[in-house]
Structures are given as C-alpha cells and as structure tokens.
Amino acid sequence: MTVSRVINGEANVRAATRDLVNAAIQKLGYAPNRAARSLAGAEELRIGLLYSNPSAAYLSEFLVGGLDQASRGNIQLMVEQCEPDAQDLKAAEHLVRIGIDGVILPPPLCDSGPVIDLLQKAGIPMVVVASGRPPADISAVSIDDERAAFDMTCHLARLGHRRIAFIRGNPNTSASERRLDGYKRGLERSGIQFDPDLIAAGLFTYRSGLDAAERLLDQQEPPSAIFAANDDMAAAAVAVAHRHGLDVPGDITVCGFDDTPLATTIWPELTTIHQPIREMSRAAMDLLAAEIRARRGPMRPAPKHKQLDYTFVRRQSDAAPRRRPSAQG
User: Fold this and answer.
1) Residue 92 shares a structural domain with residue 190
2) Any bridge partners for residue 266, and if so which?
3) Number of domains in the chain
4) Cis, bond preceding 301 (omega within 30 deg of 0)
C-alpha cells in the first residue's frame, strides 16, 4: 500500500519512506503496468503536460485550452515543469514513474530529443504541439508556420517596406526555423534581396527581444519594419522604438506572431499572426485521449498529424513607410 501511495503521488507518506521507495523504484527500473490499470477498470485518464515555455502569455493560453478540454473528457491533467536542456529530466521521469497514461509536449519541449526518447522508451504515448517538423511516428498538432511568416512578410512588402528586419526565435525550436524560412521566401516573392544584417537572434523572450531590437535600430540604416517571431519579442521591439524616440507605426512598423493577450495589452496593439493556441491544446488533448483508449484495444493506432488554420490579424502597429527629411548639417 505504501509503494502504491508513493507511485500515485499521494501526500500521506513520510519523506524518508518516500525516498526509500523512490530509490528502490529507480534501482529496479520499475514502471506501473498501464494495461493492468485498464483491466482494473480505471476510467479516468491521467495526462501529463510538460512545460518549459519562456512566454507566460503563450503558456497561459495553452493551459486554459488544456484544462477546459480535460474537464470535458474525464481527464486528470498533471502539469509539470521540465527544462529541455537539463541532464536529469526529473519531471518526465516522475510522470513515467507514477504511470501516466500520456504526455502533451508544447514548445519548446515538442522538439526536445531527450524528453521524447525517454517517453518513447517507456512506451508512453504523446502528442507534440507546434513543432515545425514533428516526428512521423508521433501524433502532432501544428499550424503552417512557414506559410504564416511568408504571408506576414508579403504584407509588409505590399505596404512598401523594403528593409524588413526579422527577430528569430530560439534556434533549437523547429517552428522558429520554419518562420525564418517563410520570411526569406516572402522577401524573395516580393523581389527584396535577403540581407543577413537584418536578422537578429532572439529566444522568444521579452528580454531577448529588447537586445535584438536595439541591435537592429542602432544600424546606420535601420529597418523600416520589424517582424518578430513571437509577440513577446515584438512588444519588446515596440518598447525599444519608443526609447529611440520613434513612433509606431509612423516611423517604424512592428509585427508579431501568436496573437497572445500581450498583443492587445500594449500600445499600439500588434498586427500579428493568430496561432490558435487554445484550440491546439484542446486538439492535442483529444488526439492523445483517443490514442490512449485505442491502445487498450487489440490494435495499436497510427499517429495522427493535425494542422489547424492560422489567421492574419491587422491592428495598429503597421503602416506604409514614410520618408524622413534629410538631416541638416
């Protein structure tokens, strides 16, 4: 009974006893038998959501969608923080140890090889969300990041911008690379030569957006438009533009990606790509629940990849470029 309580994460076990049981479990490599649990009539599913997203706005939207769908589907959602670069993936190992039924991996963990390998070796089904290049053997929910970034870049070119800068996201995430690819293709389609000096490195965080925008605006010939790979970095670019005495969008256009609540809490409100984050989380929950229940039958279900639609949302942060008067010497 004590071992059962430890495995199921119940609180009424002394710390010293819990440590002894966990040490024994780790030494033996034990994991609960999910098939036996299903035979015992366990109706409620236990799904883990591992997160390591630096954007609080993105994570908030994702959690709202996941919790809403879990409440409708008789699913117990267990939320755990997990750092993708950590050597010991304690959160993922903990979920394996307690016999979780399945796991949802939002970005950036959707591209974390160590986490995915650990779960696959444990035989735990998962759904990766918002990966630019999801593995063929794992179920996934995504949008067409490349096409969305292409559309935004072409929009800026149609406004008349020729020096369009791009703040890229974390280079370890495949969606970031897809958005960069879309930006480059949008430039090519618009007849604008790619300029590597107009690419600034970011990490999807507000702080990284500040540093990237400063570098772009300190150039001898700064861009007339900045397209950031998420709203956090776009909001930072707006702040840096104001610090430089620039009006947005009168002096410089700034656009984002995701359409998180942050996009409408700053001024001017951001023109952005609406990524249906809540709907993606709900879809992931549905896919995973269906796969878990199907695995309890005689046949192993094939993984499914579901692509949702994005939306271009135009607000107040973009405008045609205006010519500035020449400085008087």
Assistant:
1) no
2) none
3) 3
4) no
Count of Cβ atoms closer than 10 Å to residue 19 Cβ? 12
Residues 119 and 154 reside in one and the same domain: no
Q: Which residues pair with 129 in a beta bridge?
A: 141
Q: Which residues in the chain come in under a pLDDT of 50?
A: 1-3, 35-42, 325-329
Token pair 């394996």 in the structure block, residue: 96
- Give the Cα separation of 251 and 248 in Å (integer): 6
pLDDT digits (tens, 9 = 90+) for 141-167: 999 999 999 999 999 999 999 999 999
Provide Rg for the chain, Cα atoms: 23
Closest alpha carbon to 216 in 231, 201, 205: 201
Position 57: which residue type? Answer: A
Per residue in 81-99, pLDDT (tens digit) is 887 666 558 889 989 999 9
Separation of alpha carbons 253 and 50, rounded Å = 35
307-325 tens-digit pLDDT: 999 999 999 999 999 865 4
For the entire predicted model, the pTM comes to: 0.83
Q: Which domain holds residue 71?
A: 33-143+278-308
182's tokens: 């879309």
